Amino acid sequence: MTTPEASGATDPAGKRRRTVGLLLLGILPFLILAVAHWSTLPAAKGGDYAQYLLHAKAIVDGRSYGDIGYLFTPYNPIIGPRVQLPGWPLLLAPGVAVFGTSLAYAKLLAIIAAAGFLVFVGLRLARDDEPWIAAATAAIVGVALESTFATNNPISDLPFAAALWGMIWVADRPAPWTWRRAGIVFLLGGFAMATRVLGAAIVPALAITAFGRSRGERAKVLAPVIAWCAAGTTAVLLFADRIPFLAQTFRAPLGMLERLGQFWPRTRYSVFESMMYPFPWDLANDVYHAAGLVLVTLGLVGVLRRLRLSALGTVSLFYVAGVALAPVFDVRYLWPIWPVIVYAMLLGARSLLGWLRLPQRLCTRAMVSGVSLLVGGATLVGLRQPAPPALLEQPGVHELFAWLRAEQGAANMRVVFAAPRVLTLETGVPAMATFIATPERAFREFERAQITHVIVGDARIDRPTVRHIAALVHDNSDAFAVVYQNEGFAVYRLLPHGERRLSAGPS
Description:
Elements: H1 4-10, H2 12-26, H3 28-36, H4 48-61, E1 70-71, H5 87-99, H6 103-126, H7 131-147, H8 157-171, H9 179-193, H10 202-210, H11 215-239, H12 246-250, H13 253-261, H14 263-274, H15 282-307, H16 311-325, H17 338-355, H18 360-384, H19 395-406, E2 415-417, H20 420-427, E3 431-433, H21 439-448, E4 453-456, H22 464-475, E5 480-485, E6 490-494
Parallel strand pairs: 1-3, 2-3, 2-4
Antiparallel strand pairs: 4-6, 5-6
Helix pairs in contact: 1-2, 2-6, 2-7, 3-7, 3-18, 4-5, 4-20, 6-7, 6-8, 7-17, 7-18, 8-9, 9-11, 10-11, 10-16, 15-17, 17-18
């Protein structure tokens, strides 16, 4: 009897149908988790979503793109850049025009983007391998993503991943390149780079990919690269100070070398998360992750052999290099590479079973059964996983924001707060992040940004900058007067120079 895998080799249409069917089944656990998490609010430490919505609102209102009320401070540039890249706000703008800055539209777009990401992953991997292993990769990545509540903080990472893998899927088609295909690659890659700075990895990656094509095709492959280089050079010359973290990346060459040395310590948890947490016990997950790392190591040989000079292979290489050199890191920065990690793990498992000389059909059934059990277990664990603390569910935050909205003269207020972009989105009051500086420099920064009030309270955001500002207010009590307090927060008005020594400070 002919195996499904063998028949797929001679029946491309049948393989495509099986791939699509298996992919729909593979992304189902992700959709279950996303629906279950729908009502969960963004985590307290995640304020990027608010800045994206503020940019979208500026677009809708016809204001300058950077006129969003977020007061950038160079003393804490990591909390958020002066402006975010425009790709995600442009997608959010139609929803903001109709529904306002409600999270529902943004979360729906994030879910659609995540599903698109997983579909492109499956379609691309199925091109070089069996449909079930492509679907298994998508299933594991989907559950791993939503186990971190990925869609509840609707920011640019998921649409970026979808655009990146969409571009890879188009670029790696075995058919000859056409100018139409070059145009699609240019648009998808351009959107990816307009969404995340790390998308710049596409440019050198595709340039190298061009040399794996015939001479007649190279011009078509290189055309998007040349166009991106021209657009990127123009952007750097005109808006270098507005490209997120560009200056921090190249300011200290020795710092770049130091970050390379810290690559594994700061990325290992993201690698573990890509494999899911399929068990409710820490020890069992630790053993599973240790075995997974061994399998990834074994499978990388097969991955390198399959990818070679493909767009997927070269983009993955340059993207990882970009993450390694970046001045900041978060587990989500490796989301676009999670499919490669998981695929390597599955190839390693398949190679291990092959060394045991088991029949191919038995190996396939064993792996499908094993992946199904792991995905099912991780889905159940994800359903029971408590959501991270949310800023907007704290009673003290609601009371504080209500006071700011109702306060007479609020239109002229400019405040310092632990979560400035969320405060501005919810109240309309311009806000700056907490920061660390000497008292002299701190007060000069207050004057530069025309700060009128400082809000003390950590909002369940355990950051040194929050504690530093609280200590600054306490140690310089003659410079502030308390104007509002609740269980979690105190609002201090910054006194004019002439009044500071007359103030007795807060009690």
